[in-house]
Amino acid sequence: MDPHRLVGTWLFVREIEHDDGAAYTADGEARFSREDDGRVRWAERGTLRWDGGSTPVTRTLFLVREAGSDGGAAPGNDPSADGKPATGWRVTFEDGRDFHPWTAGAVEHLCGRDLYAGGLAVAAVPAQDWELRWRVTGPEKAYLMHTHYTRPSR
Fold this sequence. Notes:
mainly beta, 10-stranded antiparallel beta sheet
């Protein structure tokens, strides 16, 4: 999915269930904006809540074109300037470190010794909502995280 379709404001609700029984929720706003260098900024601001407490949370990710990508042209159409076929988009952390491919279906990311196995679910047509799920396992982390994004009502 072309991340330019996400440009604008989305509301999010996130549920985090740790294997030890701890449960958290977060809600807030996610803004997707085009950057001058062709990236799409994904900035979230919200509140993380747990039994007996809460705290503000923020994060910024970027959606960037992969090397050799034309950003999503149909196969055989308009290859990138280096002649390689389009390969799509990737999600990076704010500091530029790689996170995972921006693609529907299953993706994985090794973070230290912990494995993030997840998936992106978004409709093929312009959507008013989409979801992101992660199952995190390893010696440091063990939880399931589900985030649901919706366009705000007008």
